[in-house]
Design a protein that fits this description.
This protein has about 230 residues and is an alpha/beta fold. It has helices at about 25-40, 75-85, 100-110, 135-140, 185-229, and strands spanning about 15-20, 45-50, 60, 70, 70-75, 90, 115-120, 140-145, 150, 155, 160, 180. The strands form four sheets. It has a six-stranded parallel sheet with strand order 5-2-6-7-1-8, sandwiched between helices. A hairpin with a 6-residue loop joins β9 and β10. It starts with 14 loop residues before the first strand and ends with a helix.
Length: about 230
């Protein structure tokens, strides 16, 4: 269970909190909850997110439950370092989309006495550690792993399965592109995805072979036609 640290004016060092999990697990909801508590306590709060995240709003961090809080979109983690001056609490959403420098930025802020709260996907759609999240989790004082509910089994889910045939690492999406799955369900779906990929590749190869054969036949007819005359 996460317990918020006490805010000691005599203590110069802050700390890092990481909220991680799959899609639809409530990461952003928990981030917003903690930030609003800090705002209610009259602490100076600044929230950042990557500019690529425009799903709900350009200048707001918005959860799937439509809870929201004002934020500053930034193109890189270096901008956070420049903008987070005279701040008590810094919130960062969708941290997996930032560059590796985000780890140093968060640690520098914490060393200056700032409470840093970071939310992001810990794994990508392939089930691999996502961007700077592993390093952030390793250096954080507090790590909260939240879970969604598996859409196939009803068990706890911590994998984000992509439901459309797109291999791009960064693909912003919602329920039409992703579903949260348990380990067993994710494994089964990945097996199906691999089989479907092989089937599509075989169909493409067959179509290309047929086109090549048709082209050769046409060329052969053109070549043979003068001799026939």
């Amino acid at each position: 269970m996460f317990l918020e640290n006490t805010f000691n004016q005599e203590e110069k060092f802050g700390w890092i909190e990481v909220i991680c999990g799959s899609m639809f697990s409530g990461k952003t909801e928990e981030l917003i909850r903690r930030l609003k508590r800090a705002q209610f306590a009259k602490q100076k709060v600044e929230i950042f997110k990557p500019v690529v995240d425009t799903r709900y709003s350009d200048e707001r961090v918005v959860s799937h439950d439509e809870n929201e809080i004002l934020c500053t979109p930034v193109p890189s983690s270096a901008n956070i370092r420049l903008l987070a001056n005279q701040i008590d609490v810094v919130g960062i959403d969708e941290a997996q989309f930032f560059d590796e420098e985000i780890v140093h930025v968060c640690n520098d802020l914490a060393n200056k006495g700032v409470r840093v709260i970071v939310a992001g996907l810990d794994m990508d759609f392939k089930g691999q550690p996502f961007g700077p999240m592993p390093a952030l989790m390793a250096t954080a004082e507090y790590v909260t792993k939240v879970h969604a509910v598996c859409t196939k089994t009803g068990n706890l889910a911590h994998f984000s399965h992509r439901t459309i045939p797109d291999d791009r690492l960064v693909l912003l999406g919602e329920v039409s592109e992703y579903e949260p799955l348990s380990r067993a369900a994710y494994y089964r779906e990945m097996q199906k995805d691999r089989e479907e990929k092989i089937r599509r590749e075989e169909e493409i190869e067959k179509a290309e072979t047929n086109l090549k054969a048709e082209k050769n036949q046409k060329e052969q007819k053109i070549t043979d036609s003068p001799n026939e005359s």
